[in-house]
């Protein structure tokens, strides 16, 4: 996981660099948040993430891309640790040319262990994506990897629907106690 980086500098405006930095913290499952190293979370427990429609390392079916109309693919997860107060899901593009967040959903009941196709769990909240849209923003770049990451959190995020992406990702990162991921290698 490497050494945690620390910084006390806070940007005044949201930028792509800020979003990318938040994604690095989120996607690595470790690091720092709020300028403070999360030393108590050096070893995070893995969550098992799967889908009946997407195989890890396989293609994302086009039904779940901007060419389809199914919305988000179904997801399942297990091994959520005791003490989890809520669950969050972040779908993003993992690219050398820059990340892109396609979906953020949080405050999912910790007893929930699956997400049906094209749905949001009752009581869950959706945040803004990189495009500023609220809800699942279907991936379009056929040659990129897309990650479906499930986070176990030690508290609810408690932000409003459509809250700015960097604020939502920071809150999720601050509360993460475990995470797991399913990666689609490209779009069919």
TrEMBL record:
Keywords: Protein kinase inhibitor, Signal. InterPro entries: PEBP, PEBP-like_sf, YbhB_YbcL/LppC-like. The keyword Signal applies. The keyword Translocase does not apply. Transmembrane segments: none annotated. One of its GO terms (molecular function) is protein kinase inhibitor activity. It holds the Pfam family PBP. SUPFAM superfamilies: PEBP-like (SSF49777). Residues 1-33 form the signal peptide. Residues 49-74 are annotated as: Disordered. Belongs to the UPF0098 family. PANTHER family: PEBP (PHOSPHATIDYLETHANOLAMINE-BINDING PROTEIN) FAMILY PROTEIN (PTHR30289:SF1), UNCHARACTERIZED PROTEIN YBCL-RELATED (PTHR30289). This is YbhB/YbcL family Raf kinase inhibitor-like protein.
